[in-house]
Recover the amino acids of this structure.
């Protein structure tokens, strides 16, 4: 008889999905909203910054979530979502970013959106800034290089906190806060390629975001002590390419490029290894004693995205950097990759969860994970259309099985929100061709499409995972039969 494998998700585990305003809402200039840095990247993170944005581009309408959120939330509810991670577009609330009074119409949209979620018993998790800043703050103030950004951000955050203090519990201060290092405009509204930007300027901007994030944590707890406020990093652990001690150290160093951001949020101060890095690289940043006090307001939980792992080596001949997400690193010969070269490593997620929990002993939240793939819409037996996305089911299943293992390892995990539960515009390449959803949206790279929604095969699969609280991942019935 085989030993039954049971899932380990807690009864109140928060299953759901995650979206970002600039990638799904569309309605770019509607109801008082103005352009954001998201609009100024019409060709993705590595394409040119275009100011003003062109006449037409995918994010302009995106999947029109702004007008179709009711239909979409109904589908999320059908899958049994407990939580939906959304972001609030700063420029809907403060169109230029430096106004004194908020735009009521922008707030009204999020009032309705959150109420609609609550109608189905779905909790809203809010990312305050997800890769978009009012464009005016980038062009007039230089984005996060300017200390004034902390005040503008504070005003925005306070407005939103006060509005939703009785409706929202989980908050994330910045999406993938570490991405600014490789994509400064995406992460911080700073123009120029990373290698062209003076390192002191870049780390000063990062410092401003740390202070802003700590301030958001402090203020949030004052407004409602029940708030749970977290940081969020893009997490792709590095394995040493070989057991050569130089590779081990190289992997440690590369990992610290990410861990630095979580360290400051969880420990309330700069780690020693960064002080050394600043000294050795002649990086000088202005950190006031008031900043140092603020940084002590540490987060309640740590959230992260996980799509892939990487390798690191100190051997110059083997150190071939391949691109994955916005960061590049060495390929792992043991792993397969997605069509976009993102290495598929479910066990890496168990590793990442353990690494973070061992380091911080704080609750964790996986707020992004998923497979970006090309989907083919085919007729289904009900006279409609579907996508037979077994590749996506396999990816998610393997990752969630490892999540269950990590929980058995002792990791405290609050929930899991898969990335793009409905197809949205990709961030790195700004395309619709790269799809993550359980729901297909008829929208294409050339901006054509009816915007009709269709359930993919993974829709009912994820529904079953949530319904069974993860038990279906282990196919208990099959184990019984086999046993
Ligand atoms: C994360 C971002 O980096 O990855 C999302 O937080 C993004 O905004 C997601 O969409 C997937 O990346 P991409 O480029 O495939 O959309």
């Amino acid at each position: 008889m085989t030993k039954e494998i049971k899932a380990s998700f807690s009864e109140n585990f928060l299953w759901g999905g995650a979206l970002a305003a600039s990638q799904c809402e569309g309605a770019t200039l509607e109801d008082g909203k103005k352009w954001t840095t998201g609009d100024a990247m019409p060709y993705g993170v590595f394409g040119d910054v275009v100011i003003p944005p062109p006449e037409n581009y995918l994010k302009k309408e995106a999947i029109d979530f702004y007008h179709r959120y009711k239909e979409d939330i109904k589908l999320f509810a059908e899958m049994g979502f407990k939580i939906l991670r959304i972001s609030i577009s700063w420029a809907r609330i403060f169109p230029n970013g430096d106004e004194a009074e908020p735009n009521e119409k922008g707030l009204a949209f999020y009032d309705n959106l959150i109420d609609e979620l609550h109608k189905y018993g779905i909790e809203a998790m809010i990312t305050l800034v997800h890769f978009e800043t009012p464009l005016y703050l980038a062009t007039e103030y230089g984005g996060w290089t300017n200390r004034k950004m902390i005040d503008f951000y504070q005003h925005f955050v306070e407005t939103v906190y006060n509005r939703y203090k009785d409706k929202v519990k989980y908050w994330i201060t910045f999406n993938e806060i570490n991405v600014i290092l490789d994509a400064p405009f995406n992460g911080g509204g700073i123009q120029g390629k990373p290698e062209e930007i003076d390192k002191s300027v870049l780390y000063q901007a990062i410092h401003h975001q740390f202070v802003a994030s700590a301030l958001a944590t402090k203020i949030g707890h004052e407004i409602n002590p029940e708030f749970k406020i977290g940081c969020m990093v893009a997490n792709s652990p590095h394995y040493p390419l070989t057991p050569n001690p130089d590779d081990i150290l190289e992997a440690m160093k590369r990992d610290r490029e990410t861990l630095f951001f979580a360290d400051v949020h969880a420990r309330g101060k700069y780690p020693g290894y960064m002080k050394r890095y600043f000294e050795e690289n002649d990086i000088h940043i202005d950190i006031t004693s008031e900043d140092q006090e603020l940084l002590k307001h540490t987060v309640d939980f740590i959230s992260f995205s996980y799509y892939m792992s990487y390798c690191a080596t100190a051997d110059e001949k083997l150190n071939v950097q391949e691109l994955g997400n916005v960061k590049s690193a060495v390929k792992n010969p043991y792993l397969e990759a997605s069509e976009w070269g993102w290495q598929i490593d479910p066990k890496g997620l168990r590793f990442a969860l353990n690494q973070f929990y061992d380091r911080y002993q704080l609750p964790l939240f996986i707020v992004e994970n998923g497979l970006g793939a090309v989907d083919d819409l085919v007729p289904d037996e009900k006279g409609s259309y579907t996508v037979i996305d077994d590749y996506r089911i396999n990816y998610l299943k393997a990752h969630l099985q490892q999540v269950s293992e990590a929980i058995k390892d002792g990791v405290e995990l609050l929930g899991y929100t898969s990335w793009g539960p409905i197809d949205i515009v990709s961030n790195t390449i700004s395309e619709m061709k790269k799809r993550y959803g359980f729901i297909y949206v008829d929208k294409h790279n050339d901006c054509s499409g009816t915007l009709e929604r269709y359930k993919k095969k993974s829709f009912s699969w994820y529904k079953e995972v949530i319904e069974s609280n993860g038990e279906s991942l282990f196919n208990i019935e099959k184990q019984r039969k086999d046993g």
Q: What stands out?
A: The chain has one domain: 14-482.
